[in-house]
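User: Hey, quick favor. My workstation is busy. Could you predict this chain's structure for me?
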Amino acid sequence: MALEYWLYGDIPPGPIKASVITDIKTALDVINRFKNRLIAIGSQISRLKELTSQDLIEKIVSIAQGLNAFIATSSTEVIKILDAKDVKGYEIVFPLELAKKVAKSNFDIIMFIGYPYAYEWLILNYIKNYIPNVKTLSLEPYAQPNATWTLTSLPLQIWYKNICS
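Assistant: No problem, here it is.
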């Protein structure tokens, strides 16, 4: 067995780490188990759009609408698209406020996409430790160990193809 990055500071029962989802259909099965869904779209979604495809944000918004998920974002680019599509189920929430709002809400699962890696890591860590009844799913192209579930780390073009399928 290879030495994994979280084994360096081994804690006796071990840290709680994410279950890695290798098949996007499994992620859909996980999401469908929950009724009250929130998709949090960060400001770095614009950077992911530049690196993958110009229609990434539209695809993410369509996925959120298809899942009947409430959208929380602080990205002006996402807000413009939401207004253009006349989406009503969204709120402008800055990342530091997100954890507070989640604690007071009735969301069962929060899906994260478009946040800087370290920043999302901290938000997920806070939710994991202080709001344990809320499950998290990282839809980022890089695995997040503090999420309940995370997609496996993939090259951006393969990740984009998986997200769109």
